[in-house]
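User: I'll paste a sequence; please echo it back and then give the predicted structure.

Assistant: Echoing your sequence first, then the prediction.
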Amino acid sequence: MKRSSWHDQQEPNYKIYVGKLRIVCILFIMLAAVPLNALSSDLCDTEALKSELKIRADKDQHLRKSWKPGLKLSDDTILQDILALEKSNAVYIPDLLQKCGWPKKSVVGEDTALHIWLLVQHLDNHLHIQNQAAVKMWEAVAQGEASNGSYSALIDRNRRNSNLPQVYGFQTYNMKDRIEFYQIVTPGLIDERRKRIGLPSFYCWTLQLSGIHPDLEMEWPQGVPYKPEQCDTK
């Protein structure tokens, strides 16, 4: 009986195999040469980013200034438009932050930096996205590329909407022609927290608020030390 050997078996078509392998290698090299953020280049392009955020922020402000509370949701087309825009922003903002990070104000300018913060502030029905955005924004704050005041206001708004006491004292409400503050966590330490992040004292903040609402009295929050001082009112 003839003994079989590997010579007796059908050889593969190496020419076809090598050709396919060559194509795969070329594709791999082409993909490797493409920057990792290439697919998001349009999203992160500075001018495109500035334009998109301005459009969204302008629409947000127009709708909110046009809205008159009191109507039923089914009859309130403006409120429905506000909620629809928030839903759209809840998709756009996480995608932007994941691919581009928090826009640096030295790159996009103060106006665009304000626009993205405004949109995140108004994601009140998507608190987890506010939390994610706050992490990205804090990284920018630490680099001097985002406003510490805006960041602090975002933290306080998110905590209030989460039924938690605020940290820096930005959240207020009007009650019978008076400005009152939502609950503050460990109020005796608020000035230390504000100083740590680079904010003026709570006393100076209340003077600024009084200048914005000169016709309203202010209820000093319980537990916050009253420490009058010279303040920069500019």
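DSSP finds ten helices and three strands in the chain. The CA atoms of residues 181 and 221 lie 6 Å apart.
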